[in-house]
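Please describe our next protein:
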Amino acid sequence: MKNRNRIAFSVSTAILAMAAMAPADARAQDEVDIAFTLDWVAQGPHGIFFHAKDAGYYEEEGLNVTFDPSQGSGDAANRIAGGSHDMGFPDINSLIEFNSQNPDNAIQTVLMVYNSGPFSIFTMADSDIQEISDLEGHTLGAPSFDASMRLFPAVAAELGMDMDAINIENMSPQLRETMLVRGDVDAITGHVWSSLLNIVQTGTPEEDVRYFLYGDVGIDFYANGVAVSSEFQQEHPEAVEGFIRATIRSVKDIVENPELAIDAVMEFEPLLDRDIERARLDLALECCLVTETVQEIGFGAIDPDRFEEALVKVVEAFGLDRAPSVDEMYNPDYLPPAEERMIQ
């Protein structure tokens, strides 16, 4: 009788254990894998994604998200279109060019992250360049693929500047800020949170630098957002919604405590300089993520009229043959209600 009881107990225990394991196994089987490409190497602002993963927000949505650095927004777009990555973080202006040239394989942004772009021009504070229009007769340098440089013709056209009166010098990204500090060029273009910090790292005090955000002179381009392939949208619409919910949840955390983002970034790439990445994140939050518009309409949304106006400028600046429609570029269908996206 004792042996029979022992056997019955063992079988019951095994059945209970299997029952306890079943939900976890079912969740694992139902979990959706998402290969996510960054727009560059890991930096402070990417902490909005890394924190969402580290905090378990993606997992709670049934998502297994992995991240890969890239060679830029163009590279990120090609990865999404090619199918090696399901989602990514490219600059929407690069997507305008991609979709213009690849209408049958268009990629949509589903969550706008940088509501205002980081596109900027830098000069030294003792320069006679007091505003962007003063660039006429001066040398402006940057890599030819730099986003701020590629968008500069739109800024020049808006301000009525003569592009032929500006000497454009192509240079290596590694030399850009050094050449400005040395006086080899009069000004450079670049992302505000990259070029400004790079200049300061040369030993130049921040007060010795003057810079102009394109948004500050009325040329308010959108920038990076979460983009998704059409195939992934069709196959996993719930996963797209879950990714957006988890990311917004993470952004809210980081607005309250930016160190959470930096903790996650350093976990992803321990060789980064924590102080620099925190400064980079602070600049991104101030200029681009938590803007007045975001506080009014909620995180992740766009103003269609504003975007269409910017889209026309991008098409002209890039010399594109076809202008994609706003609907081709941006899909708001996966966003939670506005009240769930409000950030103060």
Summary: Strands lie at 32-37, 63-68, 87-88, 107-112, 119-124, 139-142, 167-170, 187-191, 209-213, 225-229. The CA atoms of residues 58 and 243 lie 6 Å apart. Confidence is low (pLDDT under 50) at residues 1-28.
